[in-house]
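Thread title: Can someone regenerate the structure for this chain?

I was given the following input by a collaborator and told the matching structure tokens would be attached. They weren't. Posting the sequence so someone can regenerate them.
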Amino acid sequence: FEPPSASHDGWFAASFPTLMFNWLRVGRETDGGFGLHWDVFWSLAVEEQFYLLFPLLLRWLGSGRKLVAALIGIAVFGLGWRWLMSELFPGRGLLSVTGSPAAFDQLAIGVLACLASRRLSRRSAWWAPPLVLVGTGLVVATWMGTDFWGGPSHHHIWTQTVIALGAGCVIVGG
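Best answer:
Regenerated them for you:
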């Protein structure tokens, strides 16, 4: 372990109540980390941002097809964000991974899985056990086949989305 090298200043303190720690990490990527015990808070910031915006989306679109289309759009946008940021800023890995749009796709897939799970009856569904197996296979194969910390790779573009899709299959089928 290396000691934290990024500054623990007023911006650092303000990033927690404003739910913007992920963007602080992106902005200070070249400064090094804040320390492992702090660096994990980026994902909580992204989740809170999504769950603060999601009720507004529900209110605006309702709970029908418009919402489903918007969630699919968010999922596709997240994948596109990771690709575009990787291409435009190849040395800025945190921008393509921890910027809010880069993680919103996974949350949108989770909401879609929940909506599908409520809508579909699994009591006598022949497809449920195979769907759970496919989902588990996607998660395990993607995780095992990904070198997260190795050399230059574009795995981070699709890995999170595929794992979220696999988890969604498990939710719907399980």
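The chain has a mean pLDDT of 86.
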